[in-house]
Amino acid sequence: MDNNINNAKMVEHITSMEEDSAKWYTDVVKQAELIDYSTVRGCMILRPYGYAIWENIQKELDKAFKETGHENVYMPLLIPETLLQKEKDHVEGFAPEVAWVTHGGSEKLTERLCIRPTSETLFCEHYSRIINSYRDLPKLYNQWCSVVRWEKTTRPFLRSLEFLWQEGHTIHETSEQAIEETKRMLNIYADFYQNQLAIPVIKGQKTEKEKFAGALITYTVEAMMHDGKALQGGTSHYFGDGFAKTFNIKFTDRENKLQYPHQTSWGISTRSIGAIIMTHGDNNGLVLPPKIAPIQVVIIPVAQHKEEVVKKSIELKEQLLSLYRVAIDLSDNSPGWKFAQYEMKGVPLRIELGPRDLEKNQCVIVRRDNREKYFIPLENVESKIRELLQEVHNGIWNKAYKNMKDRTFEIDSVEELKNIFSKTTGFVKTGWCENRECEGRLKEEIGITSRCQLFDQEDVQSKCILCGRPAKKQIIWGKAY
Predict the structure, then answer these.
(1) Could you give the CA distance from residue 450 to residue 428 in angstroms, rounded to a whole number?
(2) Where does 28-116 show beta strands of DSSP type E?
(3) For 134, phi and psi rounded to 5 degrees?
(4) DSSP letter at 2?
(5) Which of 33-47, 298-312, 413-427, 445-459 has the lowest mean pLDDT?
(6) Are 463 and 470 in contact (CB under 8 A)?
(7) How far apart (Å, rounded) are the C-alpha atoms in residues 396 and 392?
(8) N or C: which end of the chain has fewer CB within 10 A?
């Protein structure tokens, strides 16, 4: 039987993305066993396979953070209301999303406690106690934790009440050092998306309207999903000395004068898993980037009732385990079912090993991204796997990059912009006057938002496409998740 026909039948329970993209996404996260739903609305249970993806993401990022001098800490889950209220702009930005603890046991608390939506205020309180001199700076801290934001509309990985993330919080002697840190961490995120997740991103600065609550500058990496919609992949914020003044964080500088230090924060979350699904996934399920896939290679014995096939499959697994993340399926399910199952789970490479292969001292390797088959001598398997894993990475990167390139438009009129979004979705690059009214108009009329102001401003168009006034910035617009 044709395996492709057989596999198609195995995954009929996944709605095609062409039929209903939202239903396709939900089917994939459920059928690939990434999550289950909790009894609490908007909260998800990360199943072992989904959590394993996050562990690999965490491992790669944590390594990058530590290589740049950052240390991991952990702050409390609960924030006293008086502490949160200290920074007015910050608390106003999060007020609609805050969850409150009002009782301890059966007793009403004298002060409400906020379940952290983010931890700036906690870090500031801590810094105010431990920083006295320039010799105490910088503090390069990072925290791996969960946060709670009471979202009205939720979707697995993309927007949930509780989610996992890392939040970096650093504090520096000067604004120059803090801004340099903010950009450095943005570049780490961009490199991670592109080199580990095979997702191309655009780097830029958020507008005043879209920046993080309490920040002076917010930088962002923006990714394009398979349907042309934008996803904010990670952000990095420069706070200046505003938080330091509010929380009375002072240090004695090199001239023995009291100064306020400058702060940053930056974060990336389990939303990155949603980005992987929607950038690389297809109608058969996940397509995982090899560098973060929990299983990089799965071995499927064919005709496993034959002892020599099972024995050789197990030997091959043991041979590869020190080099790759390898699994073997010795269940009594049919080979066709297994092929479909591991395609669903996005495993980059599948090795098929049957009696005829043993006779020829070979195996069959199948790529998940394009289903190409390779007949490989067993003595060459280790090096061929290395080569093919890189080819899978390159293949899904090229596909995602082509999608972004084909869906990015440069225009000079509102009519063109409306025409584009009436037919498709994507990134639109235009000139902009920096006026909030113009920015808000596009959201009201077309449902698109500013994604970022580009770092490269050499080709700024002469006019704002909305009002006709001189353009000050070149900006990317798009519909976002």
Answers:
(1) 10
(2) 35-37, 44-46, 71-73, 78-80, 99-104, 107-115
(3) -60, -25
(4) -
(5) 445-459
(6) yes
(7) 6
(8) N
What is the model's pLDDT at position 2? 43
SS3 for 35? strand
More confident residue, 441 or 241: 241
d(CA 239, CA 263): 5
* Dist CA 285 CA 320 (whole Å): 26
Strands 217-224 and 78-80: unpaired
Structure letter (DSSP) for residue 210: T
Stretch (H or E) spanning 418: helix 414-423
In residues, how long is the chain?
A: 481
- How many whole angstroms separate alpha carbon 144 and alpha carbon 165? 6
Q: What is the mean pLDDT of residues 422-449?
A: 91
pTM above 0.90, yes or no: yes
Is residue 267 within 8 Å of residue 166, measured between CB atoms?
A: yes
In terms of DSSP bridges, do strands 251-252 and 230-240 run parallel, antiparallel, or are they unpaired? unpaired
Those residues with Cβ within 8 angstroms of residue 269's Cβ, 6 or more apart along the chain or in another chain:
163, 164, 165, 166
Q: What Cα–Cα distance (Å) separates residue 363 from each residue in 284, 312, 378, 379? A: 24, 11, 6, 10
Residue type, 65: F
Residue-level pLDDT at 413:
86
Q: Which amino acid is at 224?
A: M
Report cis status (omega within 30 of 0) of the bond before 138.
Answer: yes
Kind and range of the H or E run holding 8: helix 3-10
The C-alpha R_g of the chain, in whole angstroms, comes to 25
Contact 120, 212 (CB under 8 A): no
Query: What's the average model confidence in pLDDT over 42-49?
Result: 96
Question: Regarding beta strands 44-46 and 35-37, do their DSSP bridges make them parallel or antiparallel, or are they unpaired?
Answer: antiparallel
